[in-house]
Specification:
The protein is mainly alpha-helical. It has helices spanning 2-9, 15-28, 36-50, 52-60, 80-84, 102-121, 127-135, and strands at 65-66, 73-75. The termini are far apart.
């Protein structure tokens, strides 16, 4: 019985990220891009819990620029997350030594698609989306 009570009191690992989104939305409203950073951090938390391999490919594994004639890495790159989310995390811009090429874009697009597909199987939506749905019903 005591174990059941303890489990009920434990917060979800993404609770703080979700709370941050809720606070941001309550301060800035649902429209606009004021809360994008908080939403991306919340999605990352859920992805790393529910879709570990896909999240690893998106958030941690480097996007590798490949020489087509050798298939050998020519230059290690930051993760797809760093490359695609630089608008929300400008401090990461220093990790990007050159712009994304066509192949990197295509590979990151596949990785994002795989992650989104996994997240949709778990029916994960951002707190902001959940909040907007409940607000307008």
């Amino acid at each position: 019985m005591a174990e059941r009570l303890t489990r009920k009191r434990q917060k979800h690992p993404c609770h703080e990220f979700s709370r941050s989104v809720i606070e941001c939305v309550s301060n800035h409203g649902i429209e606009g891009e004021d809360c994008v950073r908080q939403e991306l951090l919340e999605k990352k938390c859920h992805a790393e819990l529910l879709c570990r391999p896909e999240a690893k490919r998106f958030y941690r594994d480097p996007a590798v620029k490949v020489r087509p004639w050798t298939r050998a890495p020519s230059e290690h790159r930051p993760s797809c997350s760093t490359l695609l989310e630089v608008f929300a995390f400008p401090e990461n811009e220093m990790q990007i030594s050159s712009p994304m090429g066509k192949e990197e874009r295509a590979e990151c697009r596949r990785i994002v698609h795989d992650l989104a597909k996994c997240m949709s199987r778990h029916r994960v939506a951002s707190t902001n989306q959940q909040h907007s749905r409940s607000t307008f019903r």
